[in-house]
Amino acid sequence: MAQRDRSHKRSVYNAVRLMSRSRILTQEMDRFNHLRRVVASSCSELQRAVKGLAVMSAEMEDMATALANNQVPRVWARAAYPSLKPLAAWVRDFTQRMEFMETWVTEGQPSVFWLPGFFFPQVCGVCVCVLRYHHIHATRRAM
Q1: What does the DSSP assignment read for 15-52?
Q2: Residue 100's closest CA among 79, 127, 121, 82?
Q3: Which of 8, 51, 60, 143 has the most crowded Cβ, counting Cβ within 10 A?
């Protein structure tokens, strides 16, 4: 009976851990997908404005200036994670972050998490600490 009780506690703990990580993944993917849509739509809008097919708004003019100066456009920065990188490094970083998330979705949970790759790594760090704390206490109770 005690063995079955421990086994049940372990399975509940593993389910909670999996749900927590899935929730983090879902929230992060929502944020990255929103940023990707902002980047794609603003680039499309800027292309149309440059071709003369749409009005060049002040925001589009600011974006064109930022791109020419290797800076992240404000419209992207408002939707993005905090970063002080110039445009080229920011795009490379964004691509790596998207690849990390895509790998997590397609190949399953990674054995090691790239915490700086998250939108808000401090929140993920707290989640890791909480999961670690509960894992230690669940392991001690199971013994």
Answers
A1: HHHHHHHHHHHHHHHHHHHHHHHHHHHHHHHHHHHHHT
A2: 121
A3: 60
Per-position pLDDT tens, the chain of length 143: 555 555 544 544 444 455 567 777 888 889 999 999 999 999 999 999 999 999 999 999 999 999 999 999 999 999 998 899 999 999 999 999 999 888 888 888 788 777 777 776 555 555 666 566 655 544 444 44
Interhelix angle for 121-142 vs 2-51, to 10°? Answer: 170
What SS3 state is found at 133? helix
Smallest Cα–Cα separation from 124: which of 142, 103, 97? 97
Task: Select from 20, 22, 47, 31 the least CA-distant residue to 94.
Answer: 31
